[in-house]
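Dissemination and training. As part of the outreach component of the grant, students in the summer workshop were shown how a complex can be specified as a set of sequence lines and then modelled as a single object. The example used during the hands-on session is reproduced here so that future cohorts can follow it. Participants entered these lines:
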Amino acid sequence: VAEFDLIERIRARAGRRDDVVLGIGDDAALLQVPAGMQLVVAMDTLNAGVHFPPGTAPAEIGWKALAVNLSDLAAMAATPAWCTLSLSLPHADAAWVDAFLDGFLALADAHRIALVGGDTTRGPLSVCVTVHGFVEPGRALRRDGARLGDDVWVSGTLGDAAGALAQWRGDEAGRSVASTAVDATRAADTGALPTPHDAILRSRLDRPTPRVALGAALAGLAHACIDVSDGLLADLAHVARASGVAIEIDLAALPVSDALRGAFLSERLHTLQATGGDDYELCFTAAPAQAARVELAALECDVQVTRIGRVIKGVGTHAFDAAGNAWHPPRSGWVHFA
Amino acid sequence: VAEFDLIERIRARAGRRDDVVLGIGDDAALLQVPAGMQLVVAMDTLNAGVHFPPGTAPAEIGWKALAVNLSDLAAMAATPAWCTLSLSLPHADAAWVDAFLDGFLALADAHRIALVGGDTTRGPLSVCVTVHGFVEPGRALRRDGARLGDDVWVSGTLGDAAGALAQWRGDEAGRSVASTAVDATRAADTGALPTPHDAILRSRLDRPTPRVALGAALAGLAHACIDVSDGLLADLAHVARASGVAIEIDLAALPVSDALRGAFLSERLHTLQATGGDDYELCFTAAPAQAARVELAALECDVQVTRIGRVIKGVGTHAFDAAGNAWHPPRSGWVHFA
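and obtained this result:
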């Protein structure tokens, strides 16, 4: 299978939009940005063994490669429109590409995004995606907008992806007794299905849900926003620095999924939740007077939101446990080049 | 060095433009497309050992990663504006990144392009770039516009990059006697400078010149355009297929650099010129009545252009030697997944 055949395979399945003047098949794509709108562009790469465990199914890789990029648009309150895909593969495997597209295009179609260009090439497995969206001038949510007195909110639950990664790494420290016991049974019984908790966590790692509708609903309501990709404290540190403020987090307030609580002991939860990356939830700040409107916006998007802290004077991000004691993570969040 | 430090290093040196509302440092970039213009987007990846020889200097990799993308915009007659960069590195090497940026930003600054986003991450050395430009509606040069009777033109000279690659591979077949003799001397004298011819060819491989000004000048003049990245015949086959025509090429008319002629025997030249990739020259078709205007446009851009063939009825691309005999390449152009 040559490069052109793979491209034709991709082109045949790519979605269509009226604002795509010319899509896959020329030297570049021709696109029409709606009058009066700003263009929003994000780009993120997933490398095998770094951003997903070796052996991850191609459909999951496809989904996640687009999801992490859409999450960046969501954090800006942008409406996604187009994407480009650069796919590096060790060899031209049409079946692999088809399965990859199953995941990638399922998410693209759900958000009505057209795949308009890119390339396929030989190399170690790597997926680079650029996404394009629109936002009205002045409506984008930025990292530098947090104001003193703001509440800090987060969508969904935190720590699930980090829990899945810990399980995949075989890191048993802090696993709950029930979970460990099930694992022991499973280890003795090759081919057994994973526990429901494990499957739920793994699905959160492999198929994160970009909070696109919530991001758009928060425009004009939230003051600052970021997506949780590197870990809550690490990501909030960016907001604090960009906004010239400090941020306090109540660890006891962090939303925990039943799956995570079922799989890990409570003393492990803080670390997974406060420093684990890859959740792709939105973390945002808003004036306390807007709390009811934030709750309503989230309800309309069918997403849970939780108040987890506040914006104060100072610098940095500070976490406190239920007793009100300052808490420090064993190591700071997900650093690719640690 | 952590990822954020590398990003800060890149941000500090990225160019500025008035139409960049928000550049590197948030979840996504905010950009303002000029009213009435279409957006043109291209994306290409360079992988170590596939798109450049191992050991290529980081500045050359930086230059080339942007150049191959600008070449795609040039082939559409677009004016470049912004780019994003996803850099995968085996380890966070600040000196390497600085040198990479020397090449990347030299070309970006020359074309007044702002680097507005992307990511740095751990992985096998790989550089993915997305470029954005503008074109007036209806002015873009496409692959599907070639008309019967058109002349086929090419800019610059062909085969230089393929010659450099053949030299780097140590492929001595068809090297000229003079060139081989010099190599033998050099091999016995470690550290000697490359011959001028070799250096010129290698520079054409490492630092291709995207024909941005020429592309823009051809809008409204050329009927179809493509950049020569995979090899002349392979690239023209795309034009022929998209336009529903056939294309004839006179091999004797292909522009040859002195460096290539000096380094290879004449029987080898046809293959290097007709099938070698990586030249990043523009190949375009135009009505014969426009020949003088094409020459003038090229002169104003300080680029040589040469008529090398014509658009005829039929299918496919056909090459003829000086005696008028049909010529077939030993193998078709550069296929990444061969």
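The CA atoms of residues 90 and 123 of chain A lie 5 Å apart. Students were then asked to discuss how this feature might be tested experimentally.
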